[in-house]
Amino acid sequence: MAQTPTAPLALVADIGGTNTRVALAEGQRILDGSIKRFANAGRSGLDEILTEYMDQVSERPQAACVAGAGPVMDGVLHMTNLKWRIDRDSVSAATGADFVAVLNDLQAQGHALDHLGEGDLRPLINWTGQTGANHAAKLVIGLGTGMNAAMVFRTGDLTLVPPSESGHTSLPVRNADELRFAQYLIRRGDFPSVEEALSGRGVQNLYHWQSQEAGGDDRPDAVEIMRRLASGEDPVAQAAAQYYVRFAGRVTGDLALIQLPFGGIYFIGGVARAFAPHFDALGLRTAFRDKGRFSEFTDQFPVCLVEDDYAALKGCAAHVAELMGAPG
């Protein structure tokens, strides 16, 4: 009797601005107890972390897939918030893996979507658990240290997640108040991009702008702003949050009409999670649907929040398994 082929052992890594998480996977399954977190501070590059991780495991992986925040071209990742250059050769040298893939972090999140359970998803808008046919396009939107978005397509047995740098497109402003925010960013020497409003830095930008509008100059960090919002003690935090949710809904609605993700829209990232309890009260659905005669059309796009903190690792594992034809 022919033996069922075993899934290759793969090293997977999710590189954030502050920490990197590394794990081992067999096929699409992250091995229990294999996830380890490493601080990035004081390290010259990812190879130091991977070498340290490999010293703690007994098996050499056949494959590796790493994902981080930054543009990827020809298998080379330049981290946006770290001075790290990551390529296939350096990952292979540090891990001993013969097969290496390098992804943008949003691409990894996109590859994870088909491997998440209902318990990993928090409904936000129009979510019924039904997200169209299996081949329907999906959209993943990252609201965290930065902002980005990427489409997810199924082509035969493979998942295609084209890279994107959506966060650096122009912020859609509609009225005089929003124009003043864009001008505030320009005066500081910043390009008024989507990321300057919808990242963690964007939360701080909106707060400081609103503080100045009220005659102050308060500059709390994003964590403190969210604390003040939750407590209801600070009207400036409330005003900044309303602008944040308005821009988040508007940008998401724009992307939905451009890409038609009938398979669903998936928010990921720490800022998205922080705002999740406030999205409904602050009008996310209203801003998302504010598309004139196409407002009702947007009701076809369900929106949820991904609450699985290890989704990027699962996406890396799924990507390697697909490319190597491994059993699930």
Shape: globular
Q: Please, how many domains? A: 2
* CATH fold topology of the largest domain: Hexokinase, domain 1
Q: Radius of gyration, Cα only, in angstroms?
A: 21 Å
Beginning-to-end CA distance, first to last residue = 21 Å
The CATH architecture term of the largest domain is 3-Layer(aba) Sandwich
Mean pLDDT: 92
The unreliable regions are: 1-5
Task: Characterize the main sheet.
Answer: 6 strands, mixed
Structural class: alpha/beta
Report what the structure shows.
This protein has 328 residues and is of the alpha/beta class. Helices cover 35% and strands 22% of the residues. The strands form three sheets. Strands 1, 2, 3, 4, 5 and 9 form a six-stranded mixed β-sheet that branches. Strands 10-15-14-11-12-13 form a six-stranded mixed β-sheet, sandwiched between helices. α1 (46-54) packs parallel to α2, α3 (105-112) packs across α11 (311-324) and α7 packs across α8. It is globular and about 60 Å long.
How would you summarize the topology of this molecule?
Elements: E1 9-15, E2 19-26, E3 29-30, E4 36-39, H1 46-54, E5 63-68, E6 72-73, E7 76-78, E8 85-87, H2 88-95, E9 99-104, H3 105-112, E10 121-125, E11 138-143, E12 147-155, E13 158-160, H4 176-187, H5 195-198, H6 200-213, H7 222-231, H8 235-259, E14 265-268, H9 270-275, H10 284-289, E15 303-306, H11 311-324
Parallel strand pairs: 1-5, 5-9, 11-14, 14-15
Antiparallel strand pairs: 1-2, 2-3, 2-4, 6-7, 7-8, 10-15, 11-12, 12-13
Helix pairs in contact: 1-2, 3-11, 6-8, 7-8
